[in-house]
Amino acid sequence: MVGAVASQTVSSDIETDDKTGRVALVTGASKGIGRVIATRLVADGYRVAGTYRSGDVPEGVLGVRCDVTSVEDVDAAFATVEADLGPVEIVVANAGMNRDTLLMRLGEDEWQSVIDANLSGAYRVAKRASRGLVRGRWGRLIFISSVVGLYGSAGQANYAAAKSGLVGLARSLTRELGGRGITSNVIAPGFIETDMTAELPAETVERYATLIPAGRMGVSEDVAAAVAFLASDEASYINGAVLPVDGGLGMGH
């Protein structure tokens, strides 16, 4: 996530003059959970934009190159989406990274880069989105956290701190913006089958599998379903909540 990258759109077979449905922006939409979330929102009828740093975005999604560690990139990305699709009404702050190591080996850069991408990046996106949400008096801010942010994990102090921080961020925004029809909620996925979890040692995966009451790892579609609900009108009275999507792994945390 080091270094700003100028924002630009890419062709993604989207009809930008189609003004049906609300406008949703998913950060980190090129792979993993973010890509599946963007795909689900398109299927549900939203007009969806997705940020990425490399790769591509799903069919039907307006791709915007953006590094969430850069204020300039975030501002330019929003300007592009607003010009092509209209004001952003739903934000899914999903972009992030991990650099795992034990505390005694954790360097300043490994700490700061993870905090900047996972927590400060979400702050930048939410802050930029809030302008339009307050004017429209309707909005959904959805932050993708992790069971690790509540449960803790050896070797992931930086990642856990960043993901835990999203809870405080969302709940503070609930108190600031809740009276304007804007909800701010957190989804805390557990062990989901993604490229990131595929890099974990086999013994770690096996150990956690025995701790998950559901008896299996989750899939990205499980998380996307939770996002779809929180983005909907049916979730208008849910605010400042942490919704675990973890098969029961983090119960009580």
Question: Topology, please?
Answer:
Blueprint: E1 9-10, E2 23-26, H1 32-43, E3 47-52, E4 62-65, H2 71-84, E5 90-93, H3 108-136, E6 139-144, H4 148-151, H5 157-177, E7 182-189, H6 195-198, H7 202-211, H8 220-231, E8 242-245
Parallel strand pairs: 2-3, 2-5, 3-4, 5-6, 6-7, 7-8
Antiparallel strand pairs: 1-4
Helix pairs in contact: 1-8, 2-3, 3-5
What does this molecule look like?
This protein has 253 residues and is an alpha/beta fold. The protein has a single domain, classed as 3-Layer(aba) Sandwich (Rossmann fold). Helices cover 42% and strands 15% of the residues. The protein contains 8 helices and 8 strands. It has helices spanning 32-43, 71-84, 108-136, 148-151, 157-177, 195-198, 202-211, 220-231; strands spanning 9-10, 23-26, 47-52, 62-65, 90-93, 139-144, 182-189, 242-245. Strands 1-4-3-2-5-6-7-8 form an 8-stranded mixed beta sheet, sandwiched between helices.
Number of domains: 1
The fold-level CATH name is Rossmann fold
Average pLDDT rating: 91
Secondary-structure-based class equals alpha/beta
CATH class: Alpha Beta
User: Which percent band covers the strand fraction?
Assistant: 15-25%
Can you count the beta strands? Answer: 8
State the share of residues found in helices, binned by percent: 40-55%
**Distance from first to last alpha carbon:** 29 Å
How many individual helices?
8
Largest sheet: 8 strands, mixed
CATH homologous superfamily - what is it? NAD(P)-binding Rossmann-like Domain
Overall morphology: globular
**Helices and strands, in N-to-C order?**
EEHEEHEHEHHEHHHE
Poorly predicted ranges: 1-19
Computed over alpha carbons, the radius of gyration is: 17 Å
CATH architecture: 3-Layer(aba) Sandwich
